[in-house]
Design a protein that fits this description.
Among the domains are: 28-99, Winged helix-like DNA-binding domain superfamily/Winged helix DNA-binding domain (Arc Repressor Mutant, subunit A); 180-251, SH3 type barrels, CATH 2.30.30; 265-330, Ferrous iron transport protein A (FeoA) (SH3 type barrels, Roll), CATH 2.30.30.90. 41% of the residues lie in helices and 19% in strands. It has eleven helices and twelve strands. Strand 1 and strand 2 (96-99) form a beta hairpin. The radius of gyration is 27 Å and the shape is globular.
Length: 334
Amino acid sequence: MVNPSLALMIAAVFAVGAAALFWPERGLYWRWAYALRASERVLSEDALKYLFDCEYRQLTGTLHGVTGALGISEDRATGLLGRLQELELVESSAGKYLLTGEGRSQALQIIRIHRLLEHHFSEDTGMDAAAWHREADRLEHRTSPEETEAMAARLGHPRFDPHGDPIPTASGEMRSVATVPLADLGPGDEGLVAHIEDEPAVIYKELLAADLHIGMQLRVLETAPDMIRLMVDSKEHTFSRVVADNLSVSTLLEGESLQEPFETLSALNPGESATVVAISAACRGAERRRLMDLGLLPGTEVCAELQGPGGDPTGYRIRGAVIALRRLQAERIQ
């Protein structure tokens, strides 16, 4: 005969287990189902982004390309593209996948969120630049349209992200940008850094280590089949062709020429004075605002007064006050 107490205990255990699994909205089953739906939504949005990128670069979107870009199996990619076709977001022809008008609109919205997030990271946080893209990838699927527009307004509706990519407008318009690959330039050609590709990450980190930023002036000094040597602002760099392929340049119009490189505050010796012309494009976000709050604005007279041991930091007289700046900070001020 079954012990009534034991039977009651077993029934209670099963009841608790069933509740933990199937409790509406909070049970493990429902959490798993929600996570699966969220995963499918993320993959769908990433597929739309990939196909838009193909369209923007005038490449062909394929099943194999989706498989590689999203890191999923070919069977799963086939099912994903099939669902996007059912939703009339994608259409296919002869093995090529293209966005419909609605698919393009949704892709642009995700791209807008991503690039606004990267702009936010560059201007409002101390986040390492190498992490901007990864964090934007993570948060773009969780940011609501209302949060997106609030962020855009707070940032002043920026036109470009920190890599030089245009940010789509709220209405889905994408500005065209006339640039040429750095690798296409020859000795003597000049221009401005207009775009720094952030993938692959290992090459982007090399460009960050070289302290390259959007808006910097450059002049090509020498080219060879395996390298390109150039002057960026006042510093000389030599890059392999693989690295140079990740840089794009806006060339100068006929009759235009680069400004002569400005000296920086770090070049001043004690007793010497100079007038601030600009803060380098390499200085962003909180660091840039701090220097401006100290009075380092175009037209400000600055005098180097004293130096610490080894020449760093240096005390500068700025608008009547002596302020110590490290060499790296002083190199940001032209």
